[in-house]
Every structure is written in C-alpha cells, then in structure tokens.
C-alpha cells in the first residue's frame, strides 16, 4: 500500500461515513418537523442501526492502517487538515470501549424521558439517581479519552477541539464579574421601556421570518424553513434546513430564532464546495458555530440600525402596532427582564446562565460536587448572579435537556461563541465603517461576505482558535464582547 | 458457531440492513415531496453511500457462513420464511459481479436524464443507443442470475418471486383477447356518458382525499399525506407515507390516486408487528402489492355502491357540480376514453397497455426484437389492440420511465396485480354478501379486515402464489378479473 493509495482509500471511506452522518441529521430533522408520532419507535431503530453502522465505519481497523501509511508532511494543507480531523476522531472513538459507549447510549436515551417526567412533576429527587449514573458514565468515558489528562478537557474536546478548561476559566472570570456588575447597575436605572402588546398572526410572522432569512443571505435553493417546537438548523453543504416557532403574542421569538438559525445555516451553506462530503465540510466547532448564530442574531440583528429596518417592515405588515418610534422599538427588542430560562435571556444575562452551568459541571466532573447537592448549588449560585431566587425546579436545575442526555462539556461553547462573536464584530466594524448604513437598509451583504471569507468557507480546515486568530489578528479575549455589551446597554439604560 | 447463534446473529445483521433500506426509502420520499432542488447532487451522493453500505451488508461473507450453519428444518415457519427470503436475496446479490452492478447503476442513472431529454424532444433515435446499452446490461445481469435458466424469468423473479414467464403467458393470453373484444364492443355502444365540468379547488379536493384515506382505513398516527408530481406510497411498518396530486379540472385524479396509494399503504401498515424490521416486514411481491392498490381503487372505489357515497360527499363539499344523479356519476367515473397513456387508462384498457409492454420486453430479452425496431413494434401493436394509431413518441414508446431505468420484468406485475385483485374480489364478495351495503355508506371496514387477515398481516412470509391460493382456495386464473370487467362494463354500456 503506497501513501497515495492509502490517502485515496481513506477519503473514499470517510466520504461514505460523512454521507451516513448527514443522513442521520436528516432523520432528526424529519422527526422534529414531519414524522407522525406513531413512527417514533421505528425511527429510534433506524437511528440506532445507522449509528452502529457509522461507528463500525469510523473505527474500522483499516482506517488505522491507512492513517499509519500516510505521512502528513507529504500532503497539501487541506489534505493534512482532513487527516488531522480523521485521526482525532479515530483515536477518540477507538479509546472508548464499545460496551461503555453502548451503555452511555442506552442510559442517556432512557434518561431523556425520565428527565421530562421529573421536570413535569417538579421533582429533582426522582431524577437524581439517573443523573448521577449519567455523570458517572461520562466520567468513565472521559477517563478513557483523557489518557491521564484532565477529565473535563477530554469531554470539552469533543465540542471544541483544542480548547482546555484552564483557558476557559481565564476567559470567563472577567466576563462574569463584568456582567453581574452591569446587570446590577441596569436594575437601578430609571429608564422605563414599554412591552409589546397585541397579537400577530402566524402567516404574517412567517412572511417576515422569510424576509429576515433573505436579508441574512439564506439560500432557499438549498434549504427550507419549517415550524418546530424548538428552533434548530440542520444539515451541511447543499441541504441545510432551518426551523422556527410562532407565538402570537411574541413575534420577536419567531424573528430572532429565525435569524439565529440562519446564522448557523448560512455558515454551513457557505463552506467551500471542495470540503463537501469530507470531515471538513461542517463548522469548525460548536463555539465557532454559535459565534455565527449569535453575531447574526445580536450584534447585527439587535443593533439599532437593523431594528430600524425591522420596525418599518413590521409597520408595513401589521400596520400601527402600538410602538411610538424606532428608538422605542430598539429599546424594547433589547429590554432586560427577570427570567429563569437561559434560552429566553437577553444579551446581558445569557452568559451568566451559561457560566453557572459551566462551573457546576466542572465541579461534577472533578468530584467536588455531588449530584445530590446539585439543586442547592444551582439555586445558591443563581441568586448570587441574578439577584433573585429560583422559584421552581423547572425554572432551575431541570430546565435544560443537556445533562440528562449526557452533554457535559458542551455548555461553555455557548459563551465561547459569544466571545468569538465579540472579537469578530469588533474586527468587522473596523473593516466596514459603513456597516450601520447597510444594516439600516436591512442589507447584510457586506457583513456576511466578510464572515464568509474569514470563517465560513474554511469549514473545519482550521482549529477554532487558529480560525479566530487568522480572522482578527490576535488570540481571542472576552474584552470586546464585554465592552460591546456594556456600551450598548449603558446607552439604552442611560447608565 | 451453533445454529442458534448463527440464526440470532443473522437476524441482528438483517435488522440493520432492513433499517438502512427503509431509511433509503425515506430519503426518496423527502426528495419527491420536501427537498429543495439545489440539494439533488448531495442527495444522490447520500443514496449512493447508503446503497454501497447496504450492498456490503447484504453480501457480507458472514451472511453466507450463518446461512450455511442454519438448518431450516429446525426452524419455526416464520423463522424459515426469513431464511428463505434472506437466502434468495443473498444468492441473487452474490451472483451479480460487482463491476456489472456498478455499471448498471451508472448507466441507468444517466439514462433517466437522457430519456427525459429525448422524450421532451420527441426523438426516439436519440435515446435508442442508451436503451440498447441498458437492455444489454440487463441481459448480462440476467445471464449471471439465471445460471443457465430463462433470462426473463431471472429478472421477473426480482419483482415477483417464484413466478415464471411461461405461467404469465397462460394467464395473459385469454385476458388480452377478452379485453380487446370488450373494447371493440364498447366502441359500438350507443350509450353516451357525459364528462365532468368545472373547477374544483385544491383545499376542497384534499379535504375529500383525506376523507377517502380515512374511509379505506389509513392510519394517520403512522403516516401522512403530501403532494407530489407522481403519486406514490413509501415506507413500511410504522412510517408509511402517501402522496397524491391535484388538478383543478380533474378531482378524480386526486381521489383515485389517493385510494390507490392508500391500498399500498394500508397493506404495509397492516403487516403483523412481529415482521417489523425483518425481511418479511414488507409486501410479498410487486404483484401482490398492486392487487391491494387496485382492489381498493377499482373493485371497491369505482363500484356503483362506493361512487354513490363519493357523489354525496362531493355534493356536500362542492354543492351542485352539474351531475344529474348518482348513476350518471358512476358511469362518468368509469367512462372509457381513447388514450395513449397507461397511467390514465380505465379498467378495460389498462391491462392492454401492460401486455403490450410485457410482450415487447420479452422479445427484447430473448433477442427476437432489436431496440432499433422497438418503436415500430410498439406502434403496430398499439393500433392492433387499441384501434387507433400512436400520434407521437411521447405518447408511445417513450412514455414510461421503466425501461430507461432498467426495469425489465416489472411491467407484468401490474397486470398480475389486477388478476390477483380479481380473484380476491370474487372471494370477498362470496364471503361478504352485504359488501355493497357497507360501500354505499363509505364503509370499507369489513372488506379491509378481510384483506388484512388474508393478505396484509402475512407480509412476505408466503410466496405470492401461495398467499393467493391460501386466500381464495385455488391457483389464480385471469377468469374472475375478465368476468368482473366484462360484467361491469357490459352493464354500463348496455352491451
């Protein structure tokens, strides 16, 4: 076997694996948007068969032989990047014993239902045993992956390759202090911001949602927009689908969910075709992905300039909807509210939700916190950072599905995404002084083209940190995000 | 390896293969109903990766080892039926050289596009070379499969296990004579049947289509109805989806396409759960499948009794739509028209279309007809059986996609389905003397329950002929179908 033959055979093998993995994504989309409820058990069997096939392909001993026969030094950069990602995944998958992987799949699959029941019943104790089991299994998996290194880093690496918790601690510490301080000062502000009133029909909301997807560069020829209970984006390359939801009294939920998912989707749609059906043909990491959805949604979509455009579109579609002027509209879109739920939080408080989860899951993994004490630890930390007490376990430790399904090491990528978005936005503004003029017209063409060139086209060809460094010229820090949020909300709340 | 272990391992292996094959079906459904046009190339890559994976699973040498270790005599009947079907497929797939299978996939995939172009241009000569190549490749495949036996039988066996062309010839000869004779006599009838006039909105047509699906026992909890260019049913077990189409001036196209597809779908939905995700968990053959769609559509759906119900439903939804009474409505639904297109043909002429194709493809396979002479042979035969000349190649030899995509041996299963439906309908009427009373109320419960018990629940556990024999008590003949059609249309046309 020559190195050349090995590389060709490995790429053909991975082409099939990537295709099967994308098919699994479509099955997930179909399940959330289209499938009849009575098909659920059969669908679970399909996914299980597909995952087993995929696992066998990814851990095929031939992959190890091909990798051993290839010298990365002989490869072009993109070829070498393929080998880097394939090797990393092959090692990860090979390190976890098959029995453990199967046990994790089994327990987390059942845990999701148990969590939903415990949540409905408002009973953390009923779920505590299962959650302890999930944490224990993930610790075992982390030990297998870490090979003597840090357990948390081993899990984090699945979602954010190359990132370590020690680096996160540094990025997050100043951010938490700054955001708590800002939240407290806003709480003392005398500025009164009205709330939106009235009802907004589904058809009209969806009309505007489609215009927003257009405005942010979504390519309808290679995707579609549907309704789902929880908005998501799904797919890669030439088939990237988005979903949103509609509540009659809260059109912003629909609009900003759409823009957020379009951020994820346009990233995937813009990846260079040469990466299609290779392991590089998707976003570089969860953090980079979230940076795109968040910069679309917040820095661009919730800017004064863009909300001016949205205000006029809403007037055109809904007539007078009780909003005095564009400035009031802008304030209302960004208004801070007391709330328990991460996914509904404003830009100031969102990352406080994430950092709470990050610190707690770190403690679960290093053994300093027991699942039995998790609810108390959550409630105590929440009051500390948000200034009021959790009123129910549904609004507290049982609100997210992540831990029940075994996602530990995933939460910090949300805030990392915001930090990356902060860096990218500062660089974008420096490169495009007329950005606001475009946004005021609902035109994101130049901004999205900049993101496409700096981030999107590369897919997974660079490590996340490298990608950001190449884009902005330095290692990422939390400072631009904190400074952007502080300025924006100091202005709105006249601090 | 014990026989027991071998059986268990083989069933687990096939469970995955069946799941992957069902997933491929869902990808097809999505492509026809949901997918954006720009996703087509990526979808082709997905299907190709899935088919390659599936082929590798089905021809895995382990399957041969497991089969060799199992003695069917030790098995329960359903276990033995599983082994019978698995062995048959394993042998078929193993006999065809991989290079030939790949070449057939490549040529037929490209041929579909070339056929569509030649058809649009009305130019058979432009497609003749490709079609000759397809026929030649399928002859090579048949030779590999036949192992010295009849070439046509080798292909036919893929769609109708156990059936042979010599048997078809016997069943079809009398049918053709009888139908041509009937068509000629109807042509001389003085009975004048009016046509439907007016426009019927999509929403109202779909309302009735859903009621018809209900009336024929379609289970919405495990399926859905969508629009597609060509109506089809897709899936097995707990996820069986149907599609229909709507033309404003021809609501019967929508209604009877729906009933036809519901026939296919209810068959799949009614298969015993124990066959789920095994090779027996789908219809026994193409002929048996078509028997269910056709008995739903014609013997039940186009009966005087059921059209009486449909007439009242249409009056309720559309108001007075210019139809004098239920009897005129019944005649109109069954009216004979001059037409070139198989899929639009009435019960009298439909099988003449199929038999024409059957005889021509038999001659192509045995070498007595050259592709270069196919158009002339088609036109000559058409005029002979239908009494008028083909006016264009789109209405002639280029009308169906079957031959371009390599489907040779498939056409006769349409008529075989009608013959089976004729047998089943005669037995059903004998068992249920009050059938018309039910149908007049739009109630098919007892009829469908009878078909469920005789045919549906068994899935692929019996060979097609065995299934029909068990249901009706004798080997199938064309006589009941011919007698049903002759009686029905002699009555309508007062012959």
Question: Which key terms come to mind for this protein?
Answer:
495 residues, globular, 2 domains, 20 helices, three-stranded mixed β-sheet
Question: How far apart are the first and last residues' alpha carbons of chain A, in Å?
Answer: 69 Å
Into which percent range does the helicity of residues of chain A fall? 55-70%
Q: Could you list the spans of chain A in which at least 5 consecutive residues all have pLDDT below 50?
A: none
Based on the structure, what is the oligomeric state of the protein chains?
Answer: homodimer
- Average of per-residue pLDDT values of chain A: 96
Most extensive contact: A-B, 37 and 37 residues
Main sheet of chain A? 3 strands, mixed
What structural class do you assign from the helix and strand content of chain A?
mainly alpha
Strands side by side in the biggest sheet of chain A = 1-3-2
Number of continuous helical runs of chain A: 20
Strand content bin of chain A: under 5%
**How big is the Rg of chain A?**
23 Å
CATH level 1 class label of the largest domain in chain A = Mainly Alpha
Short description:
Two copies of one chain form a homodimer. With 495 residues, chain A is mostly helical.
How do the strands and helices of this protein lay out in sequence?
The structure is a homodimer of 495-residue chains.
Chain A: H1 3-33, H2 40-58, H3 61-69, H4 77-95, H5 98-121, H6 124-146, H7 151-159, H8 165-187, H9 202-215, E1 225-227, E2 233-236, E3 239-244, H10 251-270, H11 286-300, H12 304-318, H13 326-333, H14 347-366, H15 374-386, H16 412-431, H17 435-440, H18 445-454, H19 464-472, H20 479-492
Parallel strand pairs in A: 1-3
Antiparallel strand pairs in A: 2-3
